[in-house]
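quick q for whoever's on today - can somebody do inverse folding on this one?? i tried earlier but teh output was garbage lol. tokens:
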């Protein structure tokens, strides 16, 4: 009985000492970790003291502290894994949104490409006529905006050229009318160059008054003869039409 009382007193003393150990040993640790170790040490201490006296209490306290620390580490790893999963989910959502945005941009690009294809398909119909006053080569102010837009369109199409053909009414000498029609075509070509179209992509022709069908003295018909016709041509068709024009129509061609 005396030995049992002695063992009990020693166990209580060891429990009191070890019970205060986590308070200073874990002062710098995270609160959860200190709490886990405290619980492990106290539990191990109580179980060890009941099972094996003071020595059992010390062994149980040490084992309990290790188990508590291990439980804290596993809990911390689980929390870090959960945070990583949260970040991965956010990144996945961001990537999904980016893919959706790219798909929308791609669809818009395809739509614009289809519109451009339609424009290119109708390229042979793109052009304009510019009228001139008698014996004049100045471009009218109202004709400049559409002319510059036509030049910008041709500049955006690598295989496109603009054919610029000048004409004159039948009044006056044929040689003079041919030179006049050429000056008119050159004035239009210069404006197209200012719009960004290189000289190599311009086909300048002077037809004079040779193609006029106006009745003598018809001033209204003469007004239609005094003109420059601009037409957009693409690829091989531009070369083919140049050869055909040179073979069938008396015209001075400048490139």
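ok took a stab at it. sequence:
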């Amino acid at each position: 009985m005396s030995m049992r009382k002695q063992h009990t007193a020693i166990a209580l003393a060891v429990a009191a000492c070890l019970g205060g150990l986590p308070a200073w040993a874990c002062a710098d640790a995270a609160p959860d970790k200190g709490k886990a170790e405290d619980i492990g040490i106290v539990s191990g201490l109580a179980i060890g003291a009941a099972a094996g006296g003071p020595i059992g209490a010390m062994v149980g306290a040490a084992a309990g502290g290790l188990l508590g620390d291990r439980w804290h580490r596993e809990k911390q790893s689980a929390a870090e894994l959960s945070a990583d999963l949260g970040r991965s989910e956010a990144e996945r959502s961001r990537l999904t949104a980016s893919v959706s945005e790219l798909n929308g941009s791609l669809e818009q690009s395809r739509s614009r490409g289809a519109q451009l294809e339609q424009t290119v398909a109708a390229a042979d119909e793109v052009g304009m006529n510019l009228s001139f006053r008698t014996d004049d080569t100045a471009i009218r102010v109202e004709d400049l905006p559409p002319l510059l837009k036509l030049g910008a369109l041709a500049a955006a199409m690598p295989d496109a050229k603009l054919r610029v053909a000048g004409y004159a009414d039948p009044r006056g000498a044929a040689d003079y009318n041919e030179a006049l029609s050429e000056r008119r075509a050159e004035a239009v070509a210069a404006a197209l160059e200012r719009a960004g179209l290189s000289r190599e992509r311009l086909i300048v022709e002077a037809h004079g008054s040779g193609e006029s069908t106006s009745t003598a003295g018809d001033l209204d018909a003469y007004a239609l003869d005094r003109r420059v016709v601009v037409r957009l041509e693409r690829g091989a068709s531009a070369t083919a039409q140049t050869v055909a024009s040179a073979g069938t129509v008396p015209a001075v061609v400048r490139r």
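fwiw Helices lie at 2-25, 31-121, 144-155, 174-194, 219-225, 235-248. also The longest helix spans residues 31-121. so keep that in mind when u check it
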